[in-house]
Amino acid sequence: MGRALLLDTETSTRIEISKEYLNFSAGHFTIFSATDRENLHGHNFQVRCSVTAMVGPNGMAFDYVLLKRVLKVLCDDLDEHLLLPQHSPYLRIEQGDGLVIAWFGAERLTFQERDVLLLPIRNVTIEELAELLLARLRARPELTEYDLHEIAVGVSSGSGQWAVSSWSSA
User: Fold this and answer.
1) What is the mean pLDDT of the chain?
2) pTM for the whole thing?
3) Using CA of residue 122, residue 123, residue 128, residue 129, what is the dihedral sign?
C-alpha cells in the first residue's frame, strides 16, 4: 500500500492575475524636465498583479475572484481619460468654467474637465501608475480581511514594457 501524501499546511503561494480585460486606454504626456515633454498621445495600458498569501486549511489562499473584480474597477476608473499629474514640479494645473488648464512653461494646454483625471503622482509614467494602482489596491477594504504578505502590481504601456511596484509585510 502506498503512503498518503501529506501536504504542508504552512505553505505560502503566489497568485498571479493577468487578464486581457485588466486594461485601460488613456491619454498622457511624459514630462522629462522643465523644458522637455512628449507630445500628447495615448496607450492601451495593461495591468497585472501577483499576491502572496498563506494557503488555508481549505487549500486556498483566498477567493481571488474578488481580487480580479477590484483590479477591474481600478482599471475602469482610469479608462478613457487624459491623465495629468497633480504633483509634477513642472506642470501647473488650473481648473474653472468646466476646463482644466495645464501650464508647462509658457505652453497653455486646455482640456474639458470631463475628459481629465488628475492623479496624485509626479509624472504619468508606468512607474508612477504601478505605484498608484498598488496603493489603491492596498486601500481597498475588501482585501483587508486577508492575510496578504506581498502584492505586486505591473503596468504596461506596450508589448514587453512593464513597470512593477511591490509591497511586502516583512
Assistant:
1) 93
2) 0.91
3) positive
Report how far residue 56's alpha carbon sits from residue 148's, in angstroms, rounded to the nearest whole number: 12
Least confident span in 71-80, 127-136, 144-153, 156-165 = 144-153
The tally of CA atoms less than 13 A away on the side-chain side of residue 131 is 9
Q: Is 91 helix (H, G, I), strand (E, B) or coil?
A: coil
pLDDT at 19 over 90: yes
Instruction: Give CA angle at 27 (33, 47), nearest 5°.
Output: 100
Describe the crossing of helices 126-139 and 64-78 by its angle, rounded to 10 degrees: 130
Question: DSSP letter at 159?
Answer: T
List, in sequence order, the alpha helices (H) in 79-151. 126-139
Q: 85-119 b/e with 16+ CB inside 10 Å = b?
A: beebebbeeeeeeeebebebeeeebebeeeebbbb
